[in-house]
C-alpha cells in the first residue's frame, strides 16, 4: 500500500469505538507472538496489541484502506481480575503461561517472588524481564 495511509478501526459488538491512522506495524519487542500497531488518533499515538485473547476477527479492506478489528475481552488479569483489553500491555508466567497486566504481574513477582497461579518461584530483572528463579 505504497504512499497511502491505512486506517484502523476497533469495533465491539458491531459498533466502532476507536479510529485512527496506522503509523507503523511491528513485532513485539520481547519476541513474544503477535503484532503491534501504532495508531495516530490526531490527539495521541496509541499502541494496539491484538491477540487471540482480545480479538475476535481482523479484516483488511484494501479498497477502503482500513483494518477492522473486532475486539472481545476473553482473558482476565490473574492479579487484579479485570479484563485484559487490546490497549493493555500483557505479560505472563514463563512456566504456566498465566496472563496478567504487565505492571500488575511484575509488581506481584517483585513482592511474592512467585507466579500468582502456579506459585512457582520467579524473579524480575532490573530491565523488567520475568525469569524462573
TrEMBL record:
Alphabetical list of InterPro entries matching this protein: Znf_RING/FYVE/PHD
Protein name: RING-type domain-containing protein
Species assigned in the record: marine sediment metagenome
